[in-house]
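#struct-help
A.M.: can someone run this one for me? Single chain, 296 residues.
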Amino acid sequence: MTDKNDKPVVSFVVLQSVEDYVEKSGKFRTECAFFEIPDSGGANAVYIPYCHKHRFDFGPALNEYRGQGAFTPPEMWVPISPVDFELFRAHFHDIHCPPSCKGYRNKRIVALLNKLRPRGRGTGTATDGKWTRKEIITAVVVPFIVLLIGTVLAWMTPEGRRWLHLDKPQLERHASSPSVSSTKPQTDSTPAQPSPSPQAQVETWSESEGTRPSNVWHVDYNGTFSCPSQEGIPAFCTATRSGNKISVHRFESLDGNKCDFQGTVSGNSVTGVYSCLSGMRDNALAEWKAEIAPAK
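D.P.: on it. Structure tokens below:
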């Protein structure tokens, strides 16, 4: 349903109506960790999209009113005045997340990083606390002991010793009788050709984009692997290889950027070009390269 200006009608007292508009309009980055539609659960609740970093672009009209002190953006759990609410509702279709928001953080990556950081104490943040002795033991000592026990158990078994390269596999010996000679003629003297070794599924790369310092990637052709950018921003990639052609897709990054890399393999080197959704003018291409560590 649309209004007289052919804009979707949004009912701020119905959570489903606000969620439908937010998802279908494409104006809000709902995967951002700082985006939220607070739900108080009260009978008189009003559902308003909210950015914890206060980075919404409210459009030309509301920005002008805000500069004149005639409009105050909504605050979480703070009652909104009737005047501010009427202005907000009248110009709601102009509000959006900035296309290249510097404060964007992906929800899933932020949740993963929060699990790896020590929990905050006192103010409840992750920066005001230090690792406790219990957390150090849980995060460092316990995994080390488990790894040590696993290595000892593997060393005690033949399969484990071969896996640790402590034993070399023995070739099977066939007994033959010296008194009986073979009388079958040789019908084919052509030696058997060795089959080509399969392509390694995981490779170690020293990758660099342009003239920036290199990063180490452990490229897994059968799954997802970590591929941090040159600025050290956490990211995840997938890769495919066909002959000497390599394609890498950086599909998820902490800063929300996505990139595609195309390259050609020559020996242990890869060279090619790449492009990203943001940070590059007019979808321009830039050079990248990688050195593949020889298999051991």
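A.M.: thanks! The first strand starts at residue 35 and ends at 36.
D.P.: also worth noting: The first helix runs from residue 15 to 25.
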